[in-house]
Design goal:
elongated; mainly alpha; single chain; about 80% helix; about 120 residues
Length: about 120
């Protein structure tokens, strides 16, 4: 009976940890979507670094290190690469490249969100 209770406690701990991780990941991706929404529109071919984009980069660099142990690196690298492209295309690229890179960033963040979404399928 003690073994059953111990196994049940470990199982509950794992499920609880999984749900907490998913909720934290959702909060992080919501913040990234909010930051991406505040990115400026590109009007010239060359622009000075924008504080909103740099703030998103700083935020991502801090949370990326925390997520490295629990999320597949493929998802983290996709967001990092997409954010780096947004920065590069905003500062030195064309308007269409900048808009395309923002779209890829939104897609990468959404994929990261779906990688560990709270739901019955993710618990199983």
């Amino acid at each position: 009976m003690k073994a059953f209770v111990a196994a049940l406690a470990v199982f509950a701990l794992l499920i609880g940890g999984s749900v907490i991780h998913a909720l934290c990941l959702e909060r992080i991706t919501d913040r990234l979507f909010t930051l991406e929404g505040s990115f400026p529109e590109k009007e010239a071919e060359t622009n000075a670094p924008d504080p909103a984009i740099r703030q998103a980069e700083a935020y991502w660099n801090t949370v990326r290190d925390r997520l490295a142990g629990t999320v597949n690196m493929r998802y983290l690298n996709a967001v990092s690469n997409a954010l780096r492209n947004v920065i590069d295309y905003y500062e030195e690229g064309s308007v269409s490249d900048y808009e395309a890179s923002r779209s890829l960033l939104r897609e990468a963040v959404e994929t990261l969100r779906l990688s560990d979404k709270v739901g019955f399928a993710s618990v199983i």
